[in-house]
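Here is one chain, start to finish.
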Amino acid sequence: MSHYEQAAHDARGYGAEFVSKAMAVAGRLGMPYDWLLGIVSWETGGFKAVGPPWNSRNAKDNGGGIIGFTGADGAPWEKMTPTEQLDLVERYYDKWKDQYGIDTFRSPIEAYWIVTGPWGLLMNPQADVGGGRNRQWVVDTMVGVFTAGGLSWSDSKIGVEGAWNVRIGDWTGIFVFRGDGDIWYAKVPSRPPGSAMPEIGYSDRTYGHWIFDDSTVKWRFGPNTDIRRFEMSRPVPDGKWEGFIRPQGQGNIKMWRGAVEPD
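Its structure:
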């Protein structure tokens, strides 16, 4: 057994039934079951929090249960066993998967953000995500936690990664795709012809999140009220790429690599 599977199997109030159901739920959610068990382990102090009754709550948000469910006292999850709460976990994840268009999670970090702060996927690394923590601190901390527990993953490599020049109507700028699902855009600062691109600070970037499937690459930017949804067809070309901005009426988008826009 893996580290998290063994820990859940041996924990009071969890056990074989919990592990078996978590495997099924994780499969439907599009992640390895060990990723889900790792998230539950972190949220329960290593499967030590158990109920009902759930007497342990997070003082900052009054959360508890197997993924830090929040709400006023008397919520339905308080009367459920860990195994029963997995139904609520699946329902919660399905809601946020729809928000982002996620079919399969690319890493346990991406999956963990859905629990700890779903809108964090649209924030920049230095953004305050509460409790005096910035987003990058959370990412670095959880990378350490999950790798120590034996989890592994690799960033996507589908050809979109890196920097693209962008034109949307009269606006020109730069989009930068990271393999972990982060994306950001910025207006390209003016500079003398032939000079190198200057560093663009975090305060001048707007961050978002990108996803992909066999036929399409899609992304969106923060804040969470931004209605725009970008969509490009795969395969990703070496040069110029054109696509749509949804909903209808938001315009088209052209992207290319290199200093000069191809014809």
